[in-house]
Amino acid sequence: MRLLGLGNIAQVKPLSEEMAVDLAADMLGEAVIFGVASLCLLLEYKRQQRKDANKEDVQNQRLLGLEKQVSELTLEIEEQSTRLREIYRVLGAEKLLDKSPTSDELPQTIIDSHSRTVLHVKK
Q1: Mean pLDDT, range 31-43, rounded to an integer
Q2: Dihedral angle, C-alpha 21, 27, 30, 31, nearest 10 °
Q3: 109: three-class secondary structure by DSSP
Q4: Rounded to the nearest 10 degrees, how much is the dihedral formed by the CA atoms of 45, 50, 53, 57?
Q5: How many angstroms separate the CA atoms of 10 and 4, rounded?
Q6: I need a surface site. Which of 1, 44, 64, 90 has the fewest CB within 10 A?
């Protein structure tokens, strides 16, 4: 403590009333400035938090909309797939009811769209 100068008791000169008033006014002014600056920082922080929360809400709403759109499109694709299978089934059944085609009516190549297999028909 002696190294820091805290061990020795020093005499403090009494302040005049005018100097004490000036010192108190300076301290009060500094405290007001510090308080206003702290309040400004706090308000700016809260404003930024609200702005970020609103931005996140907008992004979440957009994401939910996109997810809904993807699920609707998936359902539509499934419905169209079902309709296509039904069309293929009906068309296939009609071909079976017709007379068997002659060799002139047979196609030269048959392409399977699912497996991408190409069949060459020989006459």
Answers
A1: 98
A2: -120
A3: strand
A4: -160
A5: 13
A6: 1
> Of 2-6, 45-49, 53-57, 71-75, where does mean pLDDT reach its minimum?
2-6
- Tokens describing residue 14: 């009494």
Do the Cβ atoms of 47 and 54 come closer than 8 Å?
Answer: no
Q: Could you identify the residue written with the tokens 């997810």? A: 67
pLDDT in tens, 9-34: 777 788 899 999 999 999 999 999 99
- Could you tell me which of 121, 102, 99, 94 has the C-alpha nearest to residue 110? 121
DSSP state of 101: P
CA–CA gap between residue 34 and residue 28 (Å, rounded):
10
What would the two tokens of residue 87 be? 């069309």
Q: 118 CB contacts (<8 Å, ≥6 apart)?
A: 109, 110, 111, 112
Dump strand ranges (E) for the chain: 109-112, 117-120
